[in-house]
Every structure is written in C-alpha cells, then in structure tokens.
Amino acid sequence: MRGRVLIVAGSDSGGGAGIQADIKTVTALGGYAATAVTAITVQNTLGVSAVHDVPPEIVAQQIEAVVTDLGADIIKTGMLGSAAVIDAVAESISRCAADIPLVVDPVMRAKGGHALLPEDAASLLVSKLVRRARIVTPNLPEAEVLTGRVIKTVADMDAAIPALRALGAEAVLLKGGHLEGDDVVDLLISADNVVRLSDRRIATRSTHGTGCTLASAIAAGLATGAPLEQAVVRARRYVRQAILTAPGLGQGHGPLNHGHTVKPFTG
C-alpha cells in the first residue's frame, strides 16, 4: 500500500490544527496516517494556553516504532517545539528513515501568536531537516526567520527566492496568506523554476490549521507518488474547499472542514 504518511507534530485539543488536522487531512485524501507526537497543547480557537513537551527520546522511539513496522512513504514534520526535539527527530530519521522523503512545515507560531519554536532553533531546523526536505512550506513570517529578510509584499517574495533556494530543500512553497489585499499568491520554488499560484482571498475567520492542513495534503499526494506540482495544486484546492465549507465553530479562528471529501456513512 502506498499513501502512508508519518506525521511528526504536536497535538491540538481543539482539533483544528496539529496532529488532529494532519490525520483528518491524510485520511480524507485517501492515505494512511501514523504519528509521532512531539507536544500536547492546550488550545482552542482563541489560542494556546499551555504546552506540555514530550521527551525527545519518546518522540524518536515513536518514529522508529512506526517506520520499522508499518513503514512510511513520506514523513511530514510540523510543530517540533525545541532544539532537543529537532535533534532527536533528525537523528531518528537518519538512523531508520534516511531514504523516506520529507515534508517540513516550519511551525513557529500558533495562529493566535503563541511561540511554538524558539527563533534561535530555526538555524538548527534548517541544518538538520530543511536541507534534506523534498519541500518546505513556510508562511511569510516563518520565511523571514529562516532567511533573515523582510518579506511583506509579492515583490519581497520574488526577491527572497535566492535566499529560499539557499536553505537547501529540493523545493519551497512560500505561502502568501499574510499578504495585504484581495489576492493570495504562493510561490512554488525549485532549483530551476518558479510556479506562481494565485487565488482570491476568502473573507472568513475559519483559518485555524490551514498551514498544517496544506502541508499534510501535499504529503498525502507525494506519498502516492504524485509529482510535486500536482501534489501542491491538489492540496491548495483541498484547503480552499475546506475553508469555504468550514463549520463555523468557536469564538476565534475556527477550524476547517477537513472531511469535505468524505461522504457520510449511512450504515
């Protein structure tokens, strides 16, 4: 069976982001999701109020338990939380999963602003994981940290392309959701090509977990053997429909409708 995605990330008690969003996404797109939990967060649509870190050695053991038994066609990382966990994840992957492609979502802050990775750990994330990634999926604030550049406009995004290539990943999806204006522009950057992907902005507060969901949707596509651009295009369509059909839950940034691809079971 292809389509196996091992997700290394933190949990979200509200179910809109993190491991919960990742599992829903991979399942909704026909894949098989396994997990290595890096942290337990206390959060809802209003924000993160507490984080309990999982010991790095337990994170590594989860990865190895999955890979050595169920296997994986792709590994997707999300919230890692600390330099110690980044080290443990990188060492575990090198030891038992060096030939498995990697999708890196460089999660640094929650939607409400709570820090999920110290900025001084960003360089370690690059050296240990980004450089071996099939694709890395930063939003604009994350790309600013990774490159040391100010990226506020589409022109800034274009100017940052060489610095993003220098991170060492095979490809970068620079997400423009933080841009001002009615259009959202993403750049899919590879060594010799840039694909510009644009959509009209959706006026909604149901945007919690969009980054996690998009990266996992890309991973689900790659896990089945889809070409990178095809996996990215399908993932963007999936996320857009999940936003458009969002259930409107919570008082803050609400969750998406991850199950919009799934027909209700009638028994």
Q: Which regions contain 5 or more consecutive residues with pLDDT less than 50?
A: none
The number of E-state strands comes to: 9
Label the structural class: alpha/beta
What is the domain tally? 1
Shape: globular
CATH class designation: Alpha Beta
- Supply the CATH architecture: 3-Layer(aba) Sandwich
Tally of alpha and pi helices: 9
The share of residues in helices is 25-40%
What's the multimeric state? single chain
Average pLDDT confidence is: 95
> Looking at this structure, what is the CATH superfamily?
Ribokinase
Give the ordered list of helices and strands: EHEEHEHEHEHHHEEEHH
Strand content: 15-25%
Give the neighbour order of strands across the main sheet: 3-2-1-4-5-6
Radius of gyration: 17 Å
Helix-strand blueprint:
Layout: E1 4-12, H1 18-28, E2 32-44, E3 47-53, H2 56-69, E4 74-77, H3 83-96, E5 102-104, H4 122-128, E6 135-136, H5 140-147, H6 154-159, H7 161-165, E7 171-174, E8 183-190, E9 194-200, H8 210-223, H9 228-244
Parallel strand pairs: 1-2, 1-4, 4-5, 5-6
Antiparallel strand pairs: 2-3, 7-8, 8-9
Helix pairs in contact: 1-8, 2-3, 8-9
Question: Can you give keywords for this protein?
Answer:
267 residues, alpha/beta, UDP-N-acetylmuramoyl-L-alanine:D-glutamate ligase, six-stranded mixed sheet, three-stranded antiparallel sheet, 36% helix
Task: Give an account of the 3D structure.
The protein is α/β, with parallel strands linked by helices. The chain has a single domain, classed as Ribokinase (UDP-N-acetylmuramoyl-L-alanine:D-glutamate ligase), CATH 3.40.1190. Helices cover 36% and strands 21% of the residues. The chain is built from 9 helices and 9 strands. It has helices at residues 18-28, 56-69, 83-96, 122-128, 140-147, 154-159, 161-165, 210-223, 228-244, and strands at 4-12, 32-44, 47-53, 74-77, 102-104, 135-136, 171-174, 183-190, 194-200. The strands form 2 sheets. Strands 3-2-1-4-5-6 form a 6-stranded mixed sheet. The chain has a 3-stranded antiparallel sheet with strand order 7-8-9. The mean pLDDT is 95.
